[in-house]
Design brief:
This protein has 1463 residues and is α+β, with helices and mostly antiparallel strands. The chain has 51 helices and 47 strands. The chain is globular.
Length: 1463
């Protein structure tokens, strides 16, 4: 009592001393009226009391705790609230210290499995912990590692739930207790956590009666007077450690609502479930422990957990554990050496539970003076060794009695495991006559819990794993007069739903381990009973039955099942069913009986392991089973991580110094390459008894070390006849090593399924690649699908829409103006429907619409959003409700709208309604150039109600809502009237969908290949075409195409909606073949902005036109950073190249003669001539102070890419002048001939600029653009040198289109394997689920690579009348095959006839592949797209042609096919 009174007096004195005399006076008066239990301090003693007297009086009259309560309350009544708050805070701080001291006392010791208490600091040994996403890098569990668990994620958000996971016995509970203890000692989370609580889920679930979270917190406190309310008010500073959440297997009743009140008394399961789902104290931190393969229902309950895998002991910490356990250096060293000599036993000791058992057995042997010679290979054998040691320690006279008791104990354990019980009453033990027995003290721990009437005594096994081991043992014990095997026999253990019996996993493993013939003999000897062979045969049949109905080996010639994009990293989805085959292999491994495993695997001809993150033990298990597998066995690993967790070690100071001084370099060069994670499997494949016939590795990211080991195995594997490698990211070095193994005379592989990802999946061929589906929306709004037409664009469920050509801000601040979107309306189900609704989000590219569906048993509600294809001023959405169940009750859905008529870029005003539509109008705040016009915007939209109801008796109904935007009030009203007319005829959506169907018919492009590739191509085309006009649409005015499209471009977003060189160099070539009208519109934008380009050149002091690096409406330079605008003048060359390609494809002279195209080409030529400088020394024209596409090198001289474009622009301008009948300035041709094109004759490559040194990093494709898309004659050797040198130094952080250009180059050099490897990098920015790409036109380049591969590839493109003629050229014969649009190729009689499809065959390549006969293929000959009049520098694989030097009469014209006889 005295220490508490002293502490109370100190607190009171500290706060009351801060009171003024007036405040102290008020405090005394208020205190006089404070009565507690009918007592109050007499006024006579209060009236003249000073601060010290008041403190003494308070403590004396009310006691320490109540004195503090009374003082706090009185201070508030005396209106001294700040001092009252100080007292409250000081009390809390005092209690924090008191609570930490309490935790230190309570958790200073832990009980081991034999019920001995040991100090946690002396017994705890550091564990290896691997955190996601760096799961392959394991750290030792020091203070730094534990602190990292609750750090911030990659988005900077605070982690609230951490899951420590790992198999049974790996040390999760001990680690959790050590975290609690270190927190109390002030080592962990000191500034983040005020109170931490340790809750055993098993104890909580078995707790009788109801309880609240508040009760559980108070149970952990030193007394019931804890400041509970203050704790709960600051829940973000609470940490709950929930040990063993796997116990939560039973689903909660469907009607059970989550608990949100910490004071609500309810079941323990409901409290736990609400904590895990963050319904209860959502800001509190949770640290949960669970076994690795968490059941699906449990995984769903955890709210975004940060997972950390507990990987057991490192080699060094294993040794430390021995020393801590024995506490005698000689014994510890002797025991450690004996275990380390047994390699298998030592490897098992990374599991703390196994290590404890081994140490316990060795201690008993040392005490008895026995040699430490016993060996064990599995966990089962170690546990059996421990039980046997208990039996041997008993006197001989008690042996028989102890055996009988152990058999009864096994029966108790089994009843508990099957019934999900871990606690047993005294009645349970009395029923089996185990009360007071020796086995009770050896294997059971006693616990007393306060009950309602009296103390309740319960028993539980010293460790859960012991209960599971003894339960498995019960199935093998038979003895007259003794309890037999459990009811239902082994069938009850093995049968049933996988998820529901996941808690039986360890028991099942132990059962398999006990079936080993040697261990069965040991059981008979130690337990004095007969072990039935019947159980072993039953288990064998059960394993073989697992193969019934499972996938078999795919027939020769078919492809692997492709894993959907994005699944290989989805660890959260890795549920019990996915790991079931691996679990079966673990069971077989436990037997350590080769014959049994061999027989068992006969029923599993194909083993498929999907999305497994292999640990060292996993690979050891797999390797053992492969070594024992029968002839004809197949193994398939799909999306598996093969990198095992490695301990992250710190180098010693001496090693770091040696490394910095180069002292270890010579030794490092001779060191043998380390073995790969797959080495054990590769060694198993070479075993003489291994019958593995087929091995497939798909989406496994194979490092070079794996390729080395696999290559060695291929030379020695006697049975391996088929090898499949798909999408494994093989490097060139890895591929080379594998090729050496395959080429070895000893290699027996007969069927090699392709090494690269270019193979076609026949299973994907019939799948729909046009609809992108998801069940949730991406959290990043930039990844939402977009709905766009040529005039309006928005992202679905986004508050902003953009209007083509409407910008706000002056020059460098110019950006797309934000217009608030009335379309930002979300469909929601009303609360309390009682139905489980399925949400689906679909981007349907066929109809250019986004569909959100809510579906339940009784109704379906859907919302369709689209930008109208034929009415570009109209955005629309519709809502439909359909009744699915019989009944007539009304069905209501909610429409959640966040629309607000405000904009940071527009001065907006509400106007009068028009035909039932609301009206909003305004103009931009700041014009692009001084004195320019402020653009007007007028919006009409249909009001959106908060809810829609399908009335009684109605089966379905649809409502439509319109948003119309125009440049004037009259335009907006006319467009609304047109939309309402279509709406009245129920044709609004129909007209839109039909227009999209026609667009795809004219411009569609598809491939026969993997679904992921087809979807990426379709998505890219959708986002590109949706921003362009319908072919034949009248009155379209193009305002350019920005990289992010019309749905992006606000200030700070996606280049602010500016137009770059991307439009001219990257988009236009592919678009020209699909939609020439749109390509022409892009050129017309450049013509319209020529005046701004002329001003740009004048402002820099040059003649002609300098097109802006970033342009908006006027053509003036609007790039926020001046350096790019003044130096990246290569955009001029890209603009002229676009005009050049258009002319050569269409022969449309009108664009140049009448519409201003010639003015652009001439002005650019004039600019180049005024910009170059003559160098007398080199007698060449130089172009100085430029920035090439490689933006890492500004201010360079003679960029080879820019200078080649100058040359190309001038030559095209001269040729075009001749065609138009204009005189050709001589300077154009002189500069074109004399401009410097840097070339290194020693290395045979083109330096990027003057002074470039090989090895300097470059940002993106630059020199490699020479050849394609920039026409430039290159010999194959120089082309290869350019590719080799720049591929090695190109930044991995550059734009995705870089790698597609390398792919084109390698295709020209006839190296399709290397081309594909580089093209795969282009897919990094195609995001799920709606295939939104950082660069919206990526799809227009995909066709360049599709002419590549080791199989025949057919590219289908529906061709309009404008399509240019193509033909295929067969190499090396150079025989030409005409490919007229719309008709099948006419092949000579000796070749197989092509399938008569309305396709344009762009690319062919052949191997001997067992594909359907209708595929076009020619053995030994490559095939490429080819123009009949290709120039000498024309190389294969190109779609755009450069024919400016041909006589005009021989140039291809639109719709005029040229046959192979043309010169």
């Amino acid at each position: 009592m005295e220490p508490r009174a002293t502490a109370a007096r100190e607190l009171l004195l500290g706060v009351l001393e801060d009171l003024s005399q007036e405040q102290l006076k008020r405090f005394r008066h208020k205190l006089r009226d404070e009565r507690v239990d009918g007592r109050s301090i007499p006024w006579g003693r209060l009236e003249g009391a000073d601060t010290l007297d008041l403190v003494k009086l308070l403590v004396h009259f009310y006691g320490p705790e109540r004195a503090l309560d009374v003082a706090q309350k009185t201070l508030k009544r005396a209106d001294v609230r700040d001092v009252a708050a100080q007292l409250k805070e000081r009390r809390l701080q005092k209690y924090k210290k008191k609570y930490r001291e309490h935790v230190l006392r309570q958790h200073a010791k832990v009980k081991e499995r034999d019920a001995r208490s040991v100090k946690i600091n002396k017994r705890f040994t550091k564990l290896l912990i691997a955190e996601e996403p760096e799961a392959e890098r394991a750290r030792r569990s020091d203070t730094h590692t534990f602190n990292r668990l609750f750090g911030r994620d990659e988005d900077g958000e605070r982690r609230l739930t951490v899951a420590l996971q790992g198999p049974a016995g790996i040390g999760k509970t001990m680690a959790a207790r050590k975290i609690l203890y270190d927190w109390a000692a002030g080592k962990l989370y000191h500034s983040q956590v005020d109170f931490a609580f340790f809750l055993s889920c098993r104890e909580l679930l078995e707790r009788p009666g109801m309880c609240s979270l508040a009760d559980l917190i108070l149970d952990q406190c030193p007394d019931r007077k804890a400041p509970l309310q203050q704790m709960l008010e600051q829940s973000e500073r609470l940490l709950f450690i929930l040990d063993g959440v796997d116990e939560m297997l039973a689903p909660e009743p469907a009607e059970a609502m989550p608990c949100t009140d910490p004071h609500e008394a309810t079941s323990g399961a409901r409290v736990l479930g609400s904590l895990l789902s963050k319904e209860l104290l959502p800001t509190a931190r949770l640290l949960v422990t669970r076994r690795s393969a968490a059941p699906g229902r449990l995984q769903a309950r955890l709210c975004s957990p940060q997972c950390a895998e507990v990987c057991g002991f490192s080699d060094k910490d294993r040794k430390k554990y021995f020393y801590k356990f024995f506490q005698d250096e000689w014994k510890a060293e002797h025991a450690y050496r004996s275990v380390k000599e047994n390699e298998m036993l030592f490897s098992l000791c990374f599991v703390p539970a196994v290590c404890w058992i081994v140490c316990t057995v060795l201690r008993q042997q040392l005490q008895r003076g026995q040699d430490l010679w016993r060996t064990s290979k599995t966990t089962t054998s170690v546990y059996l060794l421990f039980v046997a040691s208990v039996l041997r320690s008993a006197p001989a006279a008690d042996g028989a009695q102890l055996q009988r008791e152990l058999r009864k104990l096994c029966r108790l354990a089994c009843d508990g495991v099957l019934g999900g019980r871990a606690r047993f009453s005294e009645g349970d033990l009395e029923r089996l006559q185990l009360c007071g027995s020796k086995v009770q003290t050896q294997f059971l721990s006693k616990k007393e819990m306060p009950g309602v009437m009296e103390t309740e005594v319960t028993y539980q096994f010293i460790d859960q794993s012991f209960q599971e081991f003894l339960a498995a043992l019960s199935y093998l014990l038979e003895d007259e007069g003794a309890p037999r095997a459990p009811a239902g026999g082994v069938e009850a253990l093995l049968q049933g739903d996988l998820e529901l019996r996941s808690h039986l996993k360890l028991t099942t493993r132990f059962l398999f381990g006990l079936l080993n013939a040697e261990r069965m003999c040991e059981i008979e000897r130690h337990f004095g009973c007969t072990v039935s062979e019947r159980v072993k045969q039953h288990v064998l049949r059960w394993v073989q039955d697992q193969g019934q109905g499972r996938p078999r080996v795919a027939p020769e010639g078919t492809e692997e099942i492709l894993v959907p994009q994005g699944t290989e990293e989805s660890e959260e989805e890795e549920g019990e069913e996915l790991n079931y085959p691996l679990e079966l292999l673990y069971c077989l491994y436990e037997t350590q009986e080769d014959t049994f495993v061999h027989q068992a695997l006969r029923g599993l001809p194909e083993l498929v392991l999907e999305r497994v993150h292999f640990s060292r033990m996993d690979l050891a298990v797999l390797s053992y089973c492969v070594r024992c597998c029968p002839e004809g066995q197949a193994l398939r690993l799909v999306s598996c991580r093969l990198a095992t967790a490695q301990e992250k070690k710190k180098k010693s100071l001496m090693k770091r110094l040696q490394g910095s001084l180069g002292g270890s370099s010579s030794r490092a060069t001779t060191r043998k390459p380390p073995g790969s994670p797959l080495r054990p499997l590769c060694e198993a494949m070479t075993d003489k008894q291994c019958g593995l016939n087929s091995l497939t590795l798909s989406h496994c990211k194979l490092p070079d070390s794996v390729c080395r080991d696999l290559s060695e195995a291929l030379r020695e594997a006697l049975a391996l006849a088929e090898l499949g490698l798909f999408h494994n990211g093989l490097s060139e070095a890895g591929l080379r090593v594998l090729s050496e193994g395959l080429a070895s005379p000893q290699c027996r592989v007969q069927t090699l399924r392709p090494l690269r990802g270019v193979t076609l999946s026949m299973e994907d061929a019939g799948k729909d690649a046009t609809r992108f589906t998801a069940h949730s929306l991406p959290s990043d709004p930039r990844l939402l699908a977009t709905v766009t037409n040529a005039y309006l664009g928005t992202r679905v469920y986004h508050e902003t829409l953009h209007v083509s050509g409407v910008y706000n801000g002056a020059l460098g601040d110019t950006h797309r103006a934000i217009l608030p979107s009335p379309l930002n309306v979300q469909l929601e189900a009303p609360a309390g429907t009682g139905e489980q609704l399925t949400k689906t989000y679909v981007l349907d590219t066929n109809t250019g619409s986004f569909l959100h569906t809510l579906e339940g048993p009784s109704f379906r509600a859907s919302q369709r959003i689209y930008a109208h294809r034929t009415l570009p001023h109209v955005l629309a959405f519709s809502v439909s409700i359909t009744r699915l169940a019989k009944g007539s009750w009304p069905i209501t859905v909610r429409l959640q709208s966040a629309f607000s008529p405000e904009s940071p870029d527009l001065d907006l005003h509400l106007g009068p309604d028009f035909q039932g539509a609301r009206y909003l109008y305004g103009r931009t705040l700041t014009p692009e150039q001084p004195g320019g016009a402020q653009q007007e915007v007028h919006v009409l939209w249909t009001p959106v109600p908060p809810a829609l109801t399908l009335g009684e008796g109605q089966e379905d109904a649809t409502w439509e809502f319109l948003t119309v935007v125009g440049g004037s009030q009259a335009e907006a009203q006319v467009c609304l009237a047109e939309a309402l007319q279509l709406q009245a005829r129920n044709a609004l959506y129909t007209a839109h969908a039909q227009a999209w169907a026609q667009l795809w018919a004219d411009c569609g492009l598809d491939v026969e290949g993997p679904l992921a590739l087809r979807q990426a191509l379709r998505g890219a085309l959708y986002y590109l075409l949706s921003a362009l006009p319908q072919p034949g649409a009248p009155g379209y005015v193009c305002h350019g195409l920005s990289p992010g499209g019309l749905s992006n471009g606000s200030r700070g977003e996606c280049y602010w909606g500016h137009v770059f060189w991307d439009q001219d160099l990257w988009v236009l070539p592919g678009l020209l073949l699909l939609h020439p009208e749109a390509a022409k519109a892009l050129l017309q934008y450049r013509i319209r902005t020529l005046s701004g380009a002329l001003d740009n050149a004048r402002s820099l002091g040059y003649q002609g036109a300098k097109f802006a690096w970033e342009s908006a409406g006027s053509g003036l330079e609007v790039c926020p950073e001046a350096i790019y605008g003044t130096q990246e003048i290569h955009v001029n060359g890209a603009v002229v190249l676009a005009f050049q390609q258009y002319y050569h494809t269409t022969q449309d002279l009108e664009l140049f003669r009448e519409a201003g195209g010639w003015d652009v080409v001439r002005a650019v030529a004039e600019f180049w001539c005024s910009r170059v400088e003559w160098s007398p020394e080199e007698e060449k024209y130089h172009l100085k102070g430029v920035m090439p596409p490689d933006e890492y090198h500004p201010g360079v001289n003679n960029s080879v890419y820019t200078n080649v474009l100058v040359q190309n622009s001038l030559r095209f301008a001269a040729a075009l002048a001749q065609d138009l009948g204009h005189p050709v300035p001589n300077q154009w041709l002189v500069v074109a001939d004399k401009i410097k094109v840097p070339f290194d004759s020693k290395l045979n490559f083109h330096p990027e600029f003057d002074g470039y040194k090989p090895g300097e990093e470059v940002k993106q494709a630059d020199v490699v653009l020479l050849g394609y898309p920039v026409p430039f004659p290159l010999s194959p050797h120089v082309r290869r040198q350019n590719l080799e040198i720049y591929e090695a130094v190109t930044s991995p952080h550059g734009p995705a289109m870089t790698w597609s250009m390398f792919a084109v180059g390698w295709m020209e050099l006839k190296d399709p394997g290397r081309a594909w490897a580089l093209l795969e990098k282009s897919f990094a920015n195609v995001t799920e689920p709606f295939k939104v790409s950082g660069i919206s036109y990526q799809g227009s380049r995909l066709n360049f690579s599709l002419s590549a591969g080791f199989v025949t590839v057919e590219v289908k493109a529906r061709a309009g009348r404008w399509a240019p003629s193509l033909e295929a050229e067969l190499w090396p014969s150079r025989t030409r095959l005409p490919l007229p649009p719309g008709r099948p190729p006419q092949t000579p009689p000796r070749w197989p006839q092509c399938v008569p499809r309305p396709t344009m065959l762009l690319s062919l390549q052949d191997t001997e592949s067992a594909f359907p006969a209708q595929r076009v293929g020619y053995k030994g000959q490559a095939c490429r797209p080819h123009r009949p009049q290709a120039l000498p520098h024309k190389l294969p694989g190109r779609l755009s042609e450069d024919v400016e030097q041909l006589p005009r009469a021989h140039r291809p014209c639109c719709g005029t096919p040229l046959g192979p006889e043309a010169p």
